[in-house]
Write a structure and sequence with these properties.
- Helix 14 runs parallel beside helix 15.
- The strands form nine sheets. An eight-stranded parallel β-barrel has the order 34-35-36-37-38-39-41-42, surrounded by four helices. Strands 1-13-14-21-16-19 form a six-stranded antiparallel beta sheet, with no helix packed on it. Strands 2-5-10-7-8 form a five-stranded antiparallel beta sheet, with no helix packed on it.
- Helix content is 16%, strand content 36%.
- By secondary structure, it is an alpha+beta fold.
């Protein structure tokens, strides 16, 4: 590999006039108290400025333009001439006027004149002089400048420690060219308004957060994070070259996955502003030809609290450069911030061609999708009843298809409420035999029938034979080269099973194919009545509104009494609901609490909370015996202060990948002891403070502790938790229960799981359905709720999020989930898995954009919350009463006469009979 020596600018020898670093500010009439640079506009000639082995003079105001410049500036400016090296320019000692830890913004108006062609670079640099150490140089910014006019060169810098001497200078144009400088301003944003103090110019440039982003100045401002970094112009016998610019860097001799290349960006990023990182990366090394490369931001708060913020991840290879791109936001102003690349296994080099961080440009909000000629409830499958044999169908693979009779004649239950006018099924089915692979089955191409942004429901009857045990059958869609899940079901031999699911396509596809697949090779597959049709969500919403009226409202009679019954008759009454009693909550994290905008939205619009990671075992005891309850304590204190109830998530997590390494290294006896200590420590510390606990998260998808400690361990976890905190309701909690796309956690299997726990004595008090769902369809969600409700336990949606790149579609998805939940009598609460952009586990799932702007999904959420608050007004009747029907929750009522207004409060609880509330009016 070919490497570069240290960059040329770092070896410069400066010959300048001797001058004391301590200058008297009163010596110049152009002194600005906020400007680090003195005589910034050259109104005092070259006073306090000095040259580096070249000459300079000042063109006074009104003297016209210098040779080659395009305009008469009408003010003084400096001309640096007789330059024989690119580093020669003009400098000023600023040691006494800056401090370590502050962020300084540089804005200088520059021009050039000379014999060069096109453009030449002007650069701002700091020379840092240390006693008994080498002089170093800090690149600030550079600008490509032409002779056509003045340009603004802008950037920023911050020093973690103070050198003995700090020299600011301007340099860069090619030898023989003159450097022109109209003004130089260096300010700290905390001391002055930068926008008002910088020179007016038609030319602007983004502030450079990453210094030397393209390695034009070798490794200046870059370093290795636990490894060595090298700058290259090529590698591997010139087979690896930069994709842009002249150079790239490698992080080599990596011994840990977190080793990589890094840059300190302390002070260059601000809180509550969204930034976007874009990097060009690839791999180099032996044995591994692809691996994930991650961009990460490490921040340290003033109290030394550390946080690692994942920005982006991409699968890189050793074959070509790829782009790594992602966003981040800081809720607080850190005392230290370092951005770095990591991820590949030890021994692999990370190559970096460029890395840029800019403030995220806010795109205009997308319009609602326009779907023309949408025919809801109409099947798009050709020959679904098989009246024409297998016409329209084809076998995927070399299996055989035939049409036979003997399938159900009725539409599967989940589809009946969604389909429009329909007839019974024909009783015919497709029999698929000679299946040599699991993916073989009947297929159709539906490219021209699927419309973008419509949500489609999938429904069919399926059956198998010649199987040795239960088999998974799924309706799948091939969307170009992507596989989309349209629904799954576990099928037992010789029984017809309903399969239901949904999908949505948001990008135009060249080919969309639907096929039924899944059983093992050699198992015969039968499919009847396959329906794929767009769902009419508005019609479903109208149905849900009627259901909501029945189960979430109650008749209320306000019975007024008082000393003056005459004043009561005909008096005006206005009823306002202050809060619905149905719980709506959200996931929050400790770092969110540093953002007052986040806090304000959360407190106003949610009354329950769950912690993202702070209560999980891997957070409270990442290393054996070293406990961290600080984050959870602070979150709990915040919720308590704002009267917000909290779910405890989670005591254990059954999926092996979430289990700490130190736990996995224990023998079984020590593991049992560790589990008991976890239960005792957590539930004793927080006894009575968490209303719910997810005892063992995702038992339908993991079995780590059960495999290690036996079948009884799950029930023992519940039993012990109940003993330690009898007031907490203990939940099971899992995902894909409600959407028909995962046979491991179907409602039927979830019911069996809960009954089995109860048979072992587990005090299961609630059913948690996470609700991470794509393209939700109301009848499918409702079907799952109906099945689970037979257990008589309260059901909570515990981690709801929906995702779509179009905010309007996302809002529709969210409305589906909230209305289905609110209209079902077994559901007692909904928790969203976050609401703020960049602080959610799924992209395009947020309600509030990173910098606090409410999007369409957020507006829909608030509109529904408002819809579910009752208002009523009228007059007291001759019986001294006022009646209305209202949602359960807390209310205020105003009693108004000609002379006074009296306000009372009351609560409407659940109940079937009319609620009579006596209100005594004292005059």
């Amino acid at each position: 590999m070919k490497g570069l020596s240290a960059s040329s600018f770092a070896r410069r020898l400066f010959k300048s006039n001797s001058q004391s670093p301590m200058e008297n500010r009163k010596n110049t009439g152009s002194y600005d108290a906020n400007n680090v640079i003195l005589n910034h506009d050259f109104s005092e000639g070259l006073h306090l400025w000095r040259t580096n082995c070249c000459n300079a003079f000042v063109v006074p105001a009104g003297s016209g333009n210098h040779k080659g410049t395009a305009e008469d500036v009408g003010c003084s400016y400096a001309v640096v001439t007789n330059r024989t090296e690119c580093w020669q320019g003009l400098e000023q000692d600023i040691t006494s006027r800056i401090s370590a830890g502050c962020v300084y913004t540089v804005s200088t108006c520059v021009g050039v004149s000379g014999t060069f062609r096109g453009s030449t670079d002007v650069q701002a640099t700091l020379r840092l002089v240390y006693q008994n150490a080498d002089t170093s140089y800090l690149f600030i910014s550079k600008k490509s400048v032409t002779e056509e006019g003045w340009q603004m060169l802008e950037g920023s810098f911050s020093l973690s420690t103070m050198p003995d001497q700090v020299i600011f200078y301007l340099e860069g144009p090619s030898p023989g060219s003159d450097l022109l400088i109209k003004s130089v301003i260096i300010t700290s944003p905390s001391c002055t308004d930068y926008e008002s103090s910088r020179p007016t110019s038609s030319c602007t440039d983004d502030e450079k957060i990453i210094v030397n982003a393209n390695f034009d100045y070798s490794l200046n401002s870059w370093s290795g994070r636990g490894c060595k970094v090298v700058c290259h112009d090529c590698m591997a016998d010139a087979n690896i070259n930069p994709t842009s610019g002249k150079y790239f860097a490698s992080a080599t001799e990596r011994t840990q996955s977190w080793n990589g290349i890094q840059q300190d960006i302390t002070g260059r990023v601000k809180r509550k502003i969204a930034y976007e990182m874009t990097a060009i990366v690839r791999l180099y090394g032996h044995n591994v030809n692809s691996a994930d490369v991650r961009g990460t931001l490490w921040v340290q708060a003033a109290d030394n609290r550390e946080q690692y913020i994942g920005i982006a991840k991409v699968q890189a290879t050793d074959k070509d450069w790829v782009q790594l791109q992602g966003k981040f936001l800081l809720n607080d102003s850190p005392s230290k911030a370092v951005i770095f690349l990591e991820g590949p296994p030890p021994g692999m080099d990370i190559l970096l061609n460029s890395l840029v961080v800019n403030r995220t440009v806010k795109p205009p909000p997308p319009p609602p999708p326009v779907v023309e000629n949408a025919v809801f409830g109409v099947n798009i499958i050709t020959n679904a009843h098989l009246n024409n044999g297998t016409n329209g169908w084809f076998p995927l693979g070399n299996c055989r298809m035939s049409v036979q009779t003997g399938s159900p004649h009725i539409i599967p239950p989940m589809a009946r409420d969604s389909l429009g006018t329909h007839e019974n099924l024909s009783g015919r089915y497709i029999a698929v035999t000679n299946r040599a692979e699991t993916w073989m089955g009947p297929a159709q191409v539906i490219t021209d029938k699927v419309k973008l942004y419509l949500t489609y429901q999938v429904s069919a009857w399926v059956k198998i034979r010649q199987a040795s045990g239960p088999q998974n059958v799924s309706v799948a869609l091939g969307v170009d080269d992507q596989w989309v899940n349209g629904g799954q079901v576990e099928v037992r031999d010789d029984q017809w099973h309903e399969i239901g699911g949904s999908f949505r396509i948001e990008k135009q596809a060249a080919k969309v194919m639907v096929y039924v697949q899944g059983p093992a090779a050699g198992v015969d597959l039968m499919v009847a009545g396959l329906h794929i049709f767009p769902v009419d969500r508005r019609a479903r919403f109208n149905h849900l509104k009627r259901q909501t009226e029945k189960i979430r409202k109650r008749d209320v009679i306000l019975k007024f009494s008082g000393s003056d019954s005459v004043c009561l008759l005909g008096a005006s009454v206005r009823v306002r609901q202050k809060q619905n009693s149905f719980p709506f909550g959200s996931c929050i994290c400790r770092t969110n609490m540093d953002n007052e905008d986040f806090n304000d939205f959360f407190v106003k619009n949610f009354n329950w909370a769950v912690f993202g990671n702070e209560l999980k075992w891997y957070s409270t005891e990442a290393q054996r015996g070293k406990f961290n309850y600080r984050d959870a304590d602070e979150l709990l204190d915040f919720c308590t202060r704002h009267n917000i109830q909290v779910r405890g998530h989670c005591i254990f997590w059954e999926v092996e990948s979430t289990v700490q390494e130190w736990i996995r290294s224990l023998n079984n006896n020590d593991l049992m002891t560790a589990l008991q200590n976890r239960l005792l420590g957590l539930l004793t510390r927080y006894k009575g403070k968490f209303k719910h606990y997810d005892v063992n998260n995702e038992m339908m998808h993991g079995c780590y502790y059960q495999e290690r400690l036996g079948k009884d361990i799950w029930a023992n976890m519940f039993t012990k938790a109940h003993q330690l905190d009898p007031s907490a309701i203990l939940f099971v909690n899992d995902y894909h229960v409600e959407d028909g796309c995962d046979t491991r956690s179907s409602p039927e299997k979830y019911i069996e799981h809960i009954l089995d726990l109860q048979d072992q004595g587990a005090s299961v008090g609630g059913i948690g359905i996470q609700g991470h769902i794509d393209s939700p369809v109301g009848p499918i969600v409702c079907s799952a709720l109906d099945k689970l409700s037979i257990l008589g336990l309260p059901i909570w949606f515990t981690e709801v999020d929906v995702s779509s790149g179009n905010e309007h579609v996302r809002a529709d998805d969210l409305e589906v989930m909230l209305r289905e939940s609110f209209a079902h009598p077994a559901v007692e609460g909904v928790i969203l898995w976050g609401f703020w952009e960049l602080f959610m586990s799924r992209e395009n799932a947020h309600l509030v954009n990173a910098e606090g702007d409410l999007n369409e999904a957020g507006k829909r959420y608030l509109a529904l919350k408002q819809e579910w608050l009752s208002q009523a007004h009228g007059h007291i009747d001759d019986q001294g009463q006022f009646s209305f029907r209202g949602f359960h929750g807390s209310y205020e009522v105003d009693f108004v006469t000609a002379s006074k207004k009296i306000t009372k409060t009351f609560v409407v609880d659940k109940g079937d009979d009319a609620l009579v509330i006596s209100i005594d009016i004292k005059f």
